[in-house]
Design brief:
Elements (H helix, E strand, L loop, with lengths): L1 H6 L1 E2 L2 E2 H22 L8 H26 L1 H31 L4 H32 L3 H18 L11 H9 L12 E5 L6 E5 L1 H27 L3 H13 L1 H8 L9 H22 L6 H22 L4 H8 L2
Antiparallel strand pairs: 1-2, 3-4
Subcellular location: Membrane
Keywords: Membrane, Transmembrane, Transmembrane helix
InterPro entries: Integral_membrane_TerC, Integral_membrane_TerC_rswitch
Length: 333
């Protein structure tokens, strides 16, 4: 009876693979919170890189499992989705860094915000991906809308000047500050505190700037998911591949954040590469129709996507290499 349940397919994939994936995610979160960060401490760049390497290795290892059990096409689709989502998650770091800076979140508490943010992301992405899968199953033409949206988003990114709107003008933030009791300063790692109300003097529930930062991080992910979910559906419509590649890419985000936040200036041209990837992923659906193909072969999608991103990262690192600014200044004299 139990074996029949484990072998039964759920959304096109054996139940044991879904359960194994969810069990691994829960174990990783428990290990992160209960072992690695049982006590608050600042995460340095070296620790961040080690943890990032661990999460990337686990994500790639899971991709190997997918390749082994579901076939080469599913394996390549997973890897393509993982690479795209990981890079989009890296782009999210720029916004998170801005949020932490705006709220002056101490480094020692940033991991707490990111941890609870990841839990929210796991739930929100499941809802968005489930809704997207239902749409694609019922209306296949939705894929063309996703593809057109990706191309338009990529073009917009290329034409954008890269300037972010000031966070203090965000309507949600302004609404929360009007409707909620907000403390002026942080209260350690706490999201909520009870303090005397400034008018009545009675104890009242206040939210701290740390809570506001958490809400803005969640909102930022929803905005980024508007790009990333159509991107992965343009690669594959398999709900298992879509969700697992998303979550494994995001799981390592909080570990990677502390290394990337210290090197944001070195990835100046990453957005250009991301824009090119979004345009490619969106346009390949239309290109396949023009060529009379069911779809562009997964190996080509993976190779082109990986090549664009590697070129973007390499060019960014070369353009921002140490000493380049000094050399440019000397050349201009």
């Amino acid at each position: 009876m139990e074996s029949a349940f484990l072998l039964a397919e759920w959304l096109g994939t054996p139940a044991w693979m879904w359960l194994g994936f969810l069990g691994l995610v829960v174990a990783l979160l428990a290990f992160d919170l209960g072992v690695l960060h049982r006590e608050n401490h600042e995460i340095g760049v070296s620790e961040s890189l080690r943890l990032s390497a661990l999460y990337i290795a686990l994500g790639l290892g899971f991709g190997g499992l997918v390749w082994w059990h579901l076939g080469a096409e599913s394996g390549m689709n997973y890897l393509t989705g993982f690479v795209v989502e990981k890079t989009l998650a890296m782009d999210n770091v720029f916004v998170i860094a801005m949020i932490f800076s705006f709220f002056a979140v101490p480094r020692i508490y940033q991991h707490r915000v990111l941890f609870w943010g990841i839990l929210g992301v796991i739930v929100l992405r499941a809802i968005m991906i489930g809704f997207g899968a239902a749409l694609v199953t019922s209306f296949s033409w939705v894929l063309y809308l996703f593809a057109a949206f990706l191309v338009a988003t990529g073009v917009k990114m290329l034409l954008s000047d890269g300037a972010e709107k000031p966070l203090d003008q965000n309507p949600l933030l302004r609404l929360m500050k009007r409707r909620l009791n907000v403390t002026e300063t942080h209260h350690g790692e706490r999201f909520f505190v009870r303090l005397p109300h400034p008018v009545t003097g009675r104890p009242a529930l206040f939210v701290t700037p740390l809570f506001l930062a958490l809400v803005m991080v969640e909102v930022a992910d929803v905005i980024f998911a508007v790009d990333s979910v159509p991107a992965i559906f343009a690669i594959t419509t398999d709900p298992f591949i879509v969700y697992t590649s998303n979550i494994f890419a995001i799981l390592g985000l909080r570990a990677l954040y502390f290394a990337l936040a210290a090197m944001i200036h070195r990835f100046e041209y990453l957005k250009v590469a991301l824009a090119a990837v979004l345009i490619f992923i969106g346009s390949k659906i239309f290109l396949a129709d023009m060529l009379g193909l069911a779809k562009i072969p997964p190996a080509i999608s993976l190779g082109v996507t990986f090549g664009i991103l590697v070129a973007g990262v390499a060019y960014s690192l070369w353009k921002t290499r140490p000493g380049r600014a000094r050399l440019a200044e000397e050349a201009g004299r």
